[in-house]
Design brief:
Distance between the termini: 94 Å
Largest sheet: none
Radius of gyration: 24 Å
Order of helices and strands: HHHH
Number of strands: 0
Helix content: over 70%
Shape: globular
Strand content: under 5%
Length: 147
C-alpha cells in the first residue's frame, strides 16, 4: 500500500508540473493574441477611416453625419494603444498622436499630417508584422502639387 501512495504522489506531481507548463505556454499565446487582435482591429478601423475620407460626405445634407463618423473612427484609433503591448503599443501611440484635430487636414494638398498618417500607419503595420500579425492597410488618397 505504501508503494501505491508513492505512485499517487508522483503521478499528482507530474500532472501538476504538466499543468503549470501548459499554463505558461497559454499565457504566452494570450499575450501574442492580444497584439493580434489589436493589429486586426487597427487595420479594420484604419481602413474604415480611409474609406470615409476617400468617399467624402456625398452631399451637403450628409456633412454632419460624415464628420461624426470620421470622429468616431479617429476615437477608435486613438483608444487602441492601451490594448496593445511592446512596439505595437508604441507605434499605435505615435499614430494616434499624429492625427490632427481636424481630419480634413489629412486630405489637403501636400498635407504633412496626411504624410504622417501614411508613415505612422506603415510603422504600425511593421510592428504588427514583427509581432507575428500581417495586416493590410488601404491607402489614404493624398494629393500633391505637380509642376
Amino acid at each position: 500500500m505504501h508503494s501505491k501512495a508513492r505512485f499517487a504522489v508522483v503521478a499528482a506531481g507530474a500532472l501538476l508540473a504538466l499543468g503549470l507548463a501548459a499554463g505558461c505556454s497559454s499565457d504566452e499565446s494570450a499575450a501574442s493574441g492580444e497584439n493580434t487582435d489589436v493589429c486586426n482591429t487597427f487595420a479594420a478601423d484604419h481602413n474604415a477611416f480611409v474609406g470615409l475620407a476617400a468617399a467624402g460626405p456625398g452631399s451637403a445634407e450628409n456633412i454632419d453625419k460624415w464628420t461624426a463618423d470620421k470622429q468616431a473612427a479617429v476615437d477608435k484609433l486613438k483608444a487602441l494603444p492601451g490594448t496593445a503591448s511592446g512596439d505595437v503599443a508604441s507605434s499605435l501611440t505615435t499614430f494616434g498622436d499624429g492625427l490632427p484635430a481636424d481630419t480634413l487636414e489629412l486630405s489637403t494638398t501636400d498635407s504633412e499630417s496626411g504624410k504622417a498618417f501614411v508613415d505612422n500607419g506603415a510603422a504600425v503595420k511593421s510592428a504588427c508584422e514583427a509581432d507575428g500579425t500581417t495586416i493590410t492597410l488601404d491607402a489614404l488618397p493624398l494629393s500633391t502639387f505637380t509642376n
